Amino acid sequence: MIQSCIYEYDTCPPQSFRIVNDWSEAPHADPGGMAYFFFMPQGGEPWRFDLPGREGGVIDLPDGEYNFLSYNDDTYNVRFDENRGYGAYEAYTAEVISGEQLPARSVSSDETLVYCPDMMWGCSCDHVKLSPEKVEYGNSIESFDVSSDRTMLLEQKQLTARYKFDIYDVKNLDGVRGMSAMFSGLAGSLNLASGQKNVYPVRVPSQAGKADNSTITGGFVTFGLPRNPTVDNYLSLMVILFDGRKFNYEFDVTDQVRSAINPLDVQIKIYGLELEESAPGVPGGGFDVGVDNWVNVVININD
Questions:
Q1: Fewest CB within a 10 Å sphere: which of 37, 58, 89, 192?
Q2: Three-point CA angle 184, 188, 192, nearest 5°
Q3: Quick one: pLDDT at residue 13?
Q4: Can you list the residues of the chain whose pLDDT is less than 70?
Q5: What angle do CA 219, 177, 206 make, to 5 degrees?
Q6: What is the side-by-side order of every strand in the sheet holding 90-93?
Q7: What was the pLDDT predicted at 52?
C-alpha cells in the first residue's frame, strides 16, 4: 500500500519541507491538484503526497535518498502501472470494449482501440537527497540543484499532447446526422520517470462536429507517437447520413503529425471533402455506430 498524505482529509506530520512548482514551460496548465511520489531506491512502497491546486506546498518526509515523480491527480481516463517501481511507472488508458460495430480499417493493422488520456502535467527527478542542511535534486550528477532552505523548485511540463483537426471546404454537410473520429498510430502509454513512449501503436476515438456549414472540426488528447513508429498515422472520420448510409473516410496525416513544430500541440488541416448527398433532416438522434455496412473511403490529401 502506498504511504500517503492527502492534506484536505488527513492529519499530517509537522511541516518541514517545501515544494514549489515552476509552470513557465506550461503556463496554461490547470490541474485540480498534483500528486508527488518519493521512491526509496532500496524498494518498497513510495511516499505519496496530494496537494490541491498547482502551486505546491509544505510536506514532511524523513531525510534520505529518493527517486521522485509528480503528475496531476485529477485524471479520469488514465490508469497507472505503479507496482514495478520508479523506473517502470507508466500511464496508460483502458481498451475500449464495446458490442457496437465500428468500421474496419482499410489499412491493415493490429492497433488496439483505447480511450484518449486526459491532459497531464508533471516531472521527475532520478535523484533527491534530503538532509537537515539542504535538499539536493536533479537528473544529472553534474547539474544537481542544491537548496539550503529545504525547497524543491520543480519545473512542471506538459506530458500529453493535443491533436486538433479541421477539414475545410466540405460539401453536402447538411445531409449528415452524426459524426465521430478515430486517430491511429499513437503511443499507448507513457513512462512517467523517463518520458519515453511505448513501442506498440494504438488508435483512439473522439468526437467530431460542424464548425460551420462547410467545416468539420475535432480533437484528441494523446500520449503522442511511439518510439520508432512502425505504422502510419490515419485520421478516420465516421459519418452517418440522414438516409442511414454510413461512411468511414480515412486520411493519411503522417507527414503533418511528424513534421509538427510542437509535438505537444499538433494542428492537422485537410482541404476539400465531398460527402455523399443525402436529404437534409432534423438534427439530433445521436451517433449510432452499432449498425454495420460501413463504406470505407481512403482520401489522398496530397493530390
A1: 58
A2: 140
A3: 45
A4: 1-15, 98-109, 141-142, 280-292, 302-303
A5: 20
A6: 78-81, 90-93, 189-191
A7: 95
Q: How many domains does the chain have?
A: 2
Task: Give phi and psi for 224, each to the nearest 5.
Answer: 90, -160
235 within domain boundaries: yes
User: Among candidates 223, 227, 234, 218, which has minimal Cα distance to 185?
Assistant: 234
Q: How far is it, in rounded angstroms, from Cα 23 to Cα 27?
A: 5
* Statement to judge: residues 153 and 240 lie in one domain: no
Q: What is the pLDDT of residue 229?
A: 87
> Tell me, what's the pLDDT at 14?
39
d(CA 274, CA 276): 7
Q: Which residues contact 102 (CB under 8 A, 6 or more apart)?
A: 113, 182, 238, 289, 294
Asked if residue 182 belongs to a domain, the reply is: yes
Single residue among 158, 180, 214 that ends a domain in this structure: 158
Which residue bears the cell 445531409? 175
Range of the domain at 213: 161-299
